[in-house]
């Protein structure tokens, strides 16, 4: 559909906000997609008139000749003539002699001679009369001369008849007066001869009869018999034909009986003709063959030239007879035997007879044989041309076209060979025949296609047209042939070739129109010019549209400049321009002009497009395309950003009264364009870098055009330019003015959002937040989004399904509404307006529950509760967050850690314990899915979960029951020690597993607990009561206590090592918690110089050496552990525990575990304890844990 200026120019170019400015041109592809295409309507399909075709019909069998072309007169007895002048002198002398009289012997001779001279004179006058016919032909246009010549001819004819009469009279006189004249047979013969020449055949035959009967041995008898044969032969059709011909045959046989006669050969020849007329083809062939052979015999009775003529005619007649009975395949061999060197001519004659009589199959066989025998012969192309004709007459379309192609090849080869004048004439004849045949067959096949609509027939016709035009481009009918060739190509959907051919037709007309005619004036074009021009455009239009499917148009910035027109489109444009040049007032001139302009327009060739579009609007205002053309002309200016040109063109169209009356809808379009292009001129001022002046111009525009659809845009642009000019308060005021004057304008949302952003930029956060909230509320109303129902956080149960996305509406953008509400929440939080911040974020989550930020925003509600000290609300939000949003086990545990800490902070030990139990239970089946971030609460839960086991371990003591015997006391005490050691090892293993989680605080607590477990082991020895039976003996009691203290030394040493390792790790990781403080307190007792405050130096006291083994109570003896040998080198102790995260690989020096390394601050925090320099003690070995 057409791009309408009133809608698209406004929407896409002139009324766009400055941040999406009209000076960002539309992509030409998008613009072209909406341009109306000009259809030329249904084209007129024409078929050639039958008169364009020639005729290839066979002549049909000609009427059978009644006799030979060779006349009997050629072979009659003849006398020599002489010049007319001498003849008249001689005639005068003889007349005088005869008058004077002579002897009986002389006078008949004189009369005979005078008769001969009269006959010769008659012949001479007859020939002279015939020559006047030639002169009459040359005298046309000269009436006087024509009259004189006609009179002369009449006189000559009368004189000739007079001379003939005198000759006959003399012969009669001799026969009457001198019956015994020795040459009387000769007189009688010539009397009959002259009577025959006067067409007095009856009298002539009487004379011949006398000759035959009275002078049977005369040498003129064969001629007399021949005369009777000719009479019967010539009059056969006037009576009983067969009987008369048999009489003729008999008389010819009698004449042929005289083998030495001059008429012998002719008598044989006429016998053959009688058989021919009787249909006795074989007998005729034999006799014609005999005549041919007679012509080759040496004889003196017939002149050589006459004998050759007779043989030549016999050969022709032999061929004629052969055509009735012979086989075309056997003809070459037969003619070679009969005709010898003339066999080829005989074959040509036979083929011609077949061709003329319509025996096309036989003709093709003979012609093909001639071509095969001599392909380079001069007449070979002519033979091939006739083969094409025969194939066409037989209805063999494929064969005709195929043989036509062969003819073209033969003709081209012959023309390359060249030759003499005879060759040229032969080729010219072949070309003439071929031209007629190709033209006729092409037209016939074309006409058949119009009836049957068979594409195969159309293809054959098109090929014939092509061959014809290739061979005869300048033929008289080439114009029509070329046009109808194009019509067939179009019907076959060969549109490219059809368009090319149509343009060639137009070129023929163009050349004709350029040449002056006989009157000196330009000649008129042919009758197909308009059809050819229009069809060329339509053909190329189809080609162009098909090419669009694979056309790759530039995108982005490359598509904005002038684009190269593809060759398919360019040829369409050229065809359109050809139409406009040759037929500027053609019926489809406007549509053609529009089509060319549209191509220019689509490829950003705007000057050319503007010229053609404007020409349609200016000069064809009443045409249906005038309004579209005007719109597109203006849009071309728009796409170039040429607002001045656009404004001027719109005003010119406005002033075209006829255009305005014919296209009333265009008036409103133009008024808006004039207004809007003026608006764009203001934008040019804006782009020149003068925002203050541009703002004033926009404000003036809004004041001058308050009802314009661009007035709100002008106010908005003015506010933007005022902001650029540093006049922010004025810009905000203008925006408020826009909202008040045009509250329903689509720019109002954008204005409100821009104001909020500007207020945020200048630090007016409260009003900025209000602006953001208003934008969101406006969007919600425009999009029809219902208010979110109030609900309490943390309430369990199914959630309502999220609402469907509302999308953009009434100038509000959903994504911007989402950002605005989010920003409002951030600003409210920054202003410590936590309630309003919470309301904004709750609205966000309820409006866009499926947005990527919904979970994060919902979690921020817990932060807001925390800032307000609302622990219960924070806990509820966190629990609901886990339920609604958390799918990842790591995230779930991280939130659970936060919940546990909140319970701890609130002093709710039961809640904290429950939170840790839930964390541990959640982690157990998902331990492979939990990442580092979720292990903190798991590790802490594991430490807390070990408390009952630790307490049970701690309850194991060494208070020996008094009721036992000494032996059982020893056993009981040893069992208690082994039990406590086993429990210690189990605790150490489980606490080590906590360390391996690499969570800093739980790991330090686990290390602390290991050290505390060893300390409690030592403490159990140290505080064990003395058995009752030993209390009575003070020495035994002291020894018992000493031995218990000695047993406590090893675990106490291990305790110190473990606690030191815990302290070292807490300092490395920056952990300060109850565990680290407790460890420090214990270590301060053991090593006050390292871990306690500075004390007064006290000289060390030497500890008393352990005495030798004392003898006494069996219990003490069983538990006494002697010290190791003093001289033994001290064993290098291992580390108290493996490094955090390590498994079973012992290390000489505990390395700092990078996996547990927390981000350390760049500066030491106030109150932080700097790590001590001494390295941590070596880890405790498992075997050393046994007392």
Automatic annotation (TrEMBL):
Pfam families noted in UniProt: TPR_6
Signal peptide as annotated in the record: 1-22
Keyword Amino-acid biosynthesis in annotation: no
Database matches in Gene3D superfamilies: Tetratricopeptide repeat domain
Listed InterPro entries: TPR-like_helical_dom_sf (IPR011990), TPR_rpt (IPR019734)
Ribosomal protein among keywords: no
Name of the protein this chain belongs to: Tetratricopeptide repeat protein
Lineage: Bacteria, Pseudomonadati, Myxococcota, Myxococcia, Myxococcales
């Amino acid at each position: 559909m057409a791009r309408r200026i009133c809608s698209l120019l406004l929407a896409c170019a002139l009324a766009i906000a400055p941040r999406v400015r009209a000076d960002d041109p539309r992509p030409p592809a998008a613009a072209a997609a909406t341009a109306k295409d000009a259809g030329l309507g249904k084209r007129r399909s024409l078929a050639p008139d039958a008169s364009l075709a020639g005729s290839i019909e066979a002549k049909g069998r000609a009427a059978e000749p009644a006799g030979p072309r060779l006349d009997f007169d050629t072979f009659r007895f003849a006398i020599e003539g002489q010049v007319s002048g001498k003849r008249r002198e001689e005639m005068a002398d003889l007349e005088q002699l005869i008058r004077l009289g002579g002897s009986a012997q002389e006078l008949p001779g004189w009369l005979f001679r005078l008769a001969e001279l009269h006959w010769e004179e008659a012949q001479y006058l007859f020939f002279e009369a015939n020559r006047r016919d030639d002169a009459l032909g040359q005298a046309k246009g000269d009436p006087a001369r024509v009259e004189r010549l006609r009179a002369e001819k009449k006189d000559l004819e009368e004189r000739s008849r007079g001379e003939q009469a005198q000759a006959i009279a003399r012969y009669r006189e001799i026969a009457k007066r001198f019956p015994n004249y020795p040459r009387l047979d000769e007189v009688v013969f010539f009397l009959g001869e002259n009577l025959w020449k006067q067409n007095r055949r009856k009298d002539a035959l009487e004379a011949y009869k006398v000759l035959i009967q009275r002078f049977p041995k005369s040498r003129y008898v064969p001629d007399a018999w021949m005369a009777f044969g000719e009479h019967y032969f010539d009059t056969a059709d006037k009576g009983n034909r067969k009987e008369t011909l048999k009489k003729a045959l008999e008389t010819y046989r009698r004449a042929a009986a005289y083998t030495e006669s001059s008429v012998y050969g002719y008598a044989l020849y006429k016998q053959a003709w009688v058989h021919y007329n009787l249909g006795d083809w074989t007998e005729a062939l034999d006799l014609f063959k005999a005549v041919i052979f007679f012509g080759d015999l040496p004889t003196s009775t017939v002149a050589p030239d006459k004998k050759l003529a007779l043989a030549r005619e016999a050969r022709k007649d032999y061929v004629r007879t052969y055509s009735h009975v012979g086989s075309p395949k056997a003809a070459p061999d037969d003619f070679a035997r009969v005709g010898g060197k003339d066999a080829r001519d005989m074959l040509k004659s036979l083929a011609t007879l077949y061709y003329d009589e319509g025996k096309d199959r036989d003709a093709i066989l003979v012609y093909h044989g001639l071509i095969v025998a001599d392909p380079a012969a001069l007449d070979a192309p002519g033979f091939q041309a006739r083969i094409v004709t025969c194939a066409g007459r037989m209805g063999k379309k494929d064969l005709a076209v195929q043989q036509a192609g062969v003819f073209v090849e033969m003709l081209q080869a012959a023309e390359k060979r060249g030759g003499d004048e005879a060759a040229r004439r032969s080729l010219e004849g072949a070309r003439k025949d071929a031209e007629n045949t190709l033209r006729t067959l092409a037209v016939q096949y074309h006409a058949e296609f119009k009836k049957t609509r068979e594409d195969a027939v159309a293809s054959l016709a098109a090929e014939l047209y092509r061959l014809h035009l290739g061979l005869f481009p300048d033929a008289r009918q080439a114009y029509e042939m070329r046009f109808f060739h194009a019509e067939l190509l179009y019907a076959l959907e060969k549109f490219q070739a059809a368009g090319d051919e149509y343009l060639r037709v137009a070129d023929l007309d163009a050349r004709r129109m350029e040449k002056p005619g006989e009157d000196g004036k330009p000649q008129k074009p042919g009758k197909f010019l308009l059809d050819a021009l229009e069809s060329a455009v339509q053909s190329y239009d189809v080609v162009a549209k098909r090419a669009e499917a694979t056309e790759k148009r530039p995108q982005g910035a490359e598509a904005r400049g002038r684009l190269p027109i593809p060759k398919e489109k360019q040829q369409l444009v050229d065809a359109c321009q050809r139409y406009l040049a040759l037929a500027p007032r053609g019926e489809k001139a406007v549509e053609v002009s529009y089509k060319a302009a549209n191509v220019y327009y689509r490829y950003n060739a705007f000057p050319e497009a503007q010229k053609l579009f404007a020409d349609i609007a200016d000069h064809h205002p009443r045409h249906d395309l005038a309004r579209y053309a005007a719109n597109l002309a203006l849009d071309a200016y728009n796409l170039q950003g040429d607002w001045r040109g656009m404004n001027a063109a719109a005003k010119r169209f406005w002033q075209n009264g006829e255009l305005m009356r014919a296209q009333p809808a265009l008036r409103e379009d133009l008024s808006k364009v004039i207004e809007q292009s003026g608006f764009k001129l203001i934008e040019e001022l804006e782009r020149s870098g003068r925002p203050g002046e541009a703002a004033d111009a926009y404000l003036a525009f809004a004041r001058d055009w308050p009802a314009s659809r661009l007035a709100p845009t002008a106010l908005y642009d003015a506010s933007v330019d005022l902001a650029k000019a540093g006049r922010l308060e004025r810009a905000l005021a203008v925006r408020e003015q826009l909202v008040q004057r045009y509250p329903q304008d689509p720019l109002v949302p954008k204005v409100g959002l821009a104001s909020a952003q500007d207020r945020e930029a200048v630090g007016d956060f409260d009003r900025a937040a209000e602006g953001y909230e208003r934008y969101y509320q406006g969007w919600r109303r425009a999009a029809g989004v219902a208010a979110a129902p109030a609900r309490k956080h943390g309430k369990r149960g199914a959630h309502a399904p999220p609402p469907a996305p509302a999308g953009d509406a009434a100038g509000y953008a959903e994504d911007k509404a989402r950002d605005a509400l989010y920003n409002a929440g951030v600003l409210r939080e920054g202003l410590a307006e936590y309630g309003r911040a919470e309301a904004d974020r709750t609205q966000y989550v309820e409006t866009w529950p499926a947005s990527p930020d919904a979970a994060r925003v919902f979690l921020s509600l817990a932060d807001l509760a925390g800032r307000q000290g609302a622990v219960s609300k924070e806990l509820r939000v966190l629990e609901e967050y886990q339920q609604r949003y958390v799918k990842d086990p790591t995230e779930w545990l991280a939130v659970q850690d936060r919940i546990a800490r909140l319970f701890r902070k609130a002093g709710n030990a039961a809640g904290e314990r429950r939170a840790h139990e839930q964390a541990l239970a959640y982690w157990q089946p998902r331990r492979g899915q939990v990442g580092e971030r979720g292990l903190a609460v798991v590790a802490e839960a594991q430490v807390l979960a070990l408390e009952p086991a630790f307490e049970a371990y701690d309850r194991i003591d060494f208070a020996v029951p008094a009721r036992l015997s000494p032996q059982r006391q020893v056993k009981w005490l040893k069992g208690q020690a082994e039990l406590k050691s086993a429990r210690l090892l189990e605790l150490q293993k489980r606490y080590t597993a906590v360390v391996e989680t690499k969570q800093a605080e739980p790991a330090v607590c686990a290390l602390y607990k290991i050290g505390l477990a060893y300390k409690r082991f030592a403490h159990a020895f140290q505080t064990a009561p003395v058995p009752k039976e030993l209390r009575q003996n003070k020495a035994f009691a002291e020894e018992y206590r000493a031995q218990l203290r000695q047993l406590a030394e090893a675990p106490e040493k291990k305790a110190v090592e473990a606690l030191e390792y815990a302290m070292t790790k807490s300092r490395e990781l920056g952990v300060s918690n109850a565990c680290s403080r407790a460890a420090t307190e214990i270590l301060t007792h053991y090593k006050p110089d390292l871990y306690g405050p500075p004390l007064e130096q006290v000289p060390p006291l030497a500890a008393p050496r352990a005495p030798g083994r004392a003898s006494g109570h069996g219990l003490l003896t069983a538990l006494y552990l002697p010290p190791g040998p003093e001289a033994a080198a001290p064993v290098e102790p291992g580390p108290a525990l493996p490094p955090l995260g390590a498994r079973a690989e012992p290390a000489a020096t505990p390395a700092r575990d990078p996996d547990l390394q927390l981000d350390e601050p760049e500066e030491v925090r106030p109150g932080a304890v700097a790590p001590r320099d001494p390295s941590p003690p070596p880890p405790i070995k498992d075997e050393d844990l046994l007392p």
